[in-house]
Amino acid sequence: MAELPPGEVTRLLSAWRHGDPAAPDLLMSLVYGELRKMARRHSARQKPGQTFQPTALIHDVYLRLVGHPAKSWQNRGHFFAVCAKAMRHILVDYARARQAAKRGGGEPRLSLDGVTVDRAAELIALDEALAKLKLLHARQCRVVECRYFAGLSVEETAEALQVSPETVMRDWKMAKAFLHRALADGASG
Amino acid sequence: MTPERYGELEDLWHRALEKPAAERQAFVDTVCAGDEALRRELESLLASSEQAEGFLEQPPDDVAAEMFQVREEAEVTRTLAHYVLRSRLGAGGMGEIFLAQDIHLGRQVALKLLTRESASEGDRKRRLLLEAQAASTLNHPNVAQIYEIAEAEGIEFIAMEYVPGRTLSAHLQERQLRPAEVVEIVIPSRLQKEGFPSLRCSRLLRRRLSCVTKSQS
Questions:
Q1: Does B77 contact A at CB distance below 8 Å?
Q2: What residues in A contact B44, CB-CB < 8 Å?
Q3: Which residue has the higher pLDDT, B24 or B132?
Q4: What is the mean pLDDT of chain B?
Q5: Which is deepest, A84, B17, B77, B83, by most CB within 10 Å?
Q6: A1 within a domain of the structure (yes/no)
Q7: Residue A155: is its pLDDT beyond 80?
Q8: CB distance from B14 to chain A under 8 Å?
Q9: In total, how many domains does chain A have?
């Protein structure tokens, strides 16, 4: 990815707040590329056995693309919401690729711990259930993106979606029940 | 289900959960009276709220970690004999050099490939082999160790020790070096004092130096 012009993300975030319909998609593609780039750097720095943390990654990407954390909390919130969505797409795309490789009889990868095949199926099922939830209750879907895919806390999620922490907790609780049921139905049916 | 219906369900679901467990069923019976579909939805969602307690509480960090690890590995997927080519380190007069993983021994190596085009030129091929043979007679910390010379898929290659760091030409691009400095990089004075192990080796070094001098002018 080419280097971003300085302030581009801040400009897009503010365009979004002022109702520019193209801003979220543009931001999304910038964030997607940047997250992947940073993630590679993160994993290269990481010692074996250390846990990968999307939240730490997102904070780093924010600092890189936007600047000081205290600069604008409104921007930060919007940005985190975009990151959460990007993380969902990145992870689910990966899970689908894994599944396709498995079905296509592709070579088994070296040095994998075997976690992924089942986890990939789980993620894909979750993504499909989330798509249904989005049609019924878009905010609950976004809460799940923030809490689960980006690992954001209740407070950070509230900031990202500009609602109260209580609302986040209520949405989170019901979304989990809805998704758990959808996945259980899918598994039995 | 429609969003409106889901909204109705949301309200009832939260209200039901606020009730003590003993009163919950009575509450459901009252609010769903005459609407069996609503009752089924509400009851099953209430049941799954208990099972969903720890559900999704752990972000998919393991998948993310593995994904980025795999991506890293997948950037170059080509294999040659028992080597997996990871990334291209550069190209020289005789072919390309790749960072590769030796699957058998699990170590990183630098793989110098003689490209098909250049392999047709007998002289280049001979020089590649000559260089490998010369270097393989040396065992010195300043000379990359040669692991093997082999051929696979019609490609001749040398597997050698991978030494991370900058190349001489990167140094030269940065600033003009005095000839003495170039000599110091190619043949450190320590090695000069020790003397050269063989005539072959000194020929090799002379050739290297002449390349450097040409590229600089």
A1: no
A2: 181
A3: B24
A4: 75
A5: A84
A6: no
A7: yes
A8: yes
A9: 1
